[in-house]
Amino acid sequence: MATQQRYTGLIERYRSRLPVSASTRLISLCEGNTPLIRLENIPRLIGKDVDIYVKFEGLNPTGSFKDRGMTMAVTKAVEEGSQAIICASTGNTSASAAAYAVRAGIKAFVLIPEGKIALGKLAQTLMYGAQIIQINGNFDAGMNIVKQIADHAPVAIVNSINPFRLQGQKTAAFEIIDELGGAPDYHCLPVGNAGNISAYWMGYTEYAQDLPGLPAVTDRRPIMCGYQAAGAAPFVAGKMIDHPETVATAIRIGHPQSWDLAWKAQQESGGWFDSQTDQQILAAQKMLSQYEGVFCEPASAASLAGALQDIGSGKIPEGSRIVCTLTGNGIKDPDIAISQCKDAHPVTIEANLEAVKKAILDSM
Ligand code: F0G
Among candidates 134, 129, 131, which has minimal Cα distance to 155? Predict the structure, then answer.
């Protein structure tokens, strides 16, 4: 019988492209290797000849793409002897940091904006047992404090300003190329702190340089399209903003840390930044759920919302192959999901066959 090698995580899979040695203890939860799902119903619905794939990062161990960066960041923190890690977070980074800290046997401190993180993310972080520090301020304020704390306390920062985070996250681009046999024409993703768009660009660039038999480097990389929420869109404004607001709390960020790297990705790829209203983001989230069976969190849907707008206007032409990253799982934010389905009308009936039969026949 043929034996298949067990998948043990992205560091093992892409070891030669990551900064680890043979003796490095890998802190992993088998992250990565997420599905690239080809949309079947939405292209038909919009009447456009486009090939859209979604990279469903919500299926990582803690339900977001953060696990890709966290396996690397925590592996390196442990290798360097850290006993504790810290991050500021809109929710997903904190959940991921908390889980990988448990795995490593070290302590995690997370700074989160009070009342502004999705319920599922809070539940996860509590369950993993991280020390939660709620601040009376937004993500940007938390980030500002975390950047100074390393000089005052023995903790390793695991936000995406930690270069190992981007190293881990770049592997998503490798997986896409491995699966499609080449880069897509367009890569769309939500932009908050801007680490992820920078990491993808790094991944596409690195892989393109040594894939044999393909055309010149510049032709082998996608055009990068970064989408922000309209109330939290510093890249669209061209400057930092002080009071970001959006229903997509994951990307409620006005002072992105990877500012220069993200502009580099946009410029080198010939791409663009644009914004979507909260309404457009929520509509795309619902559309993905109700037409494709893919449930992502609101922030993630900014990628599809943006892609659909640019396909509609012709900015992304027909015939294109497009990948949208769905950064987090919809289950993380049950409040928004339920409030989006107020017209769903669940029925409550007696617990007997007759009543159930009637309920079914009534709604056929
Ligand atoms: N989508 C989700 C679901 C996120 O959680 C984030 C960032 C982003 C998109 C944006 O990615 O920051 O690399 O541009 N969440 C961070 C956090 C800030 O703390 O969980 P980015």
Answer: 131
Residue 2's pLDDT is: 66
Residues 154 and 177 in one domain: no
- Determine the structural domain holding residue 119 and report its residue range: 66-162
Q: CB of 110 closer than 6 A to ligand 1?
A: no
Q: Is the shortest distance between the CB of 297 and ligand 1 below 6 Å?
A: yes
Could you give the number of structural domains in the chain? Answer: 2
Q: Which of 327, 329, 332, 333, when mutated, tests ligand 1's pocket best, judged by the most ligand atoms within 8 Å of its CB? A: 327
Positions in the chain whose pLDDT score sits under 50: none
Which domain-ending residue is among 112, 135, 162? 162
Same structural domain, 191 and 50 = yes
Task: Supply the residue whose CA is at minimum distance from atom 11 of ligand 1.
Answer: 192
Best residue among 64, 111, 224, 247 to mutate for probing ligand 1, ranked by most atoms within 8 Å of CB: 64
Residue 261's identity, in one-letter code, is L
- Give the model's pLDDT for residue 215: 55
Is 5 part of a structural domain of the chain? no
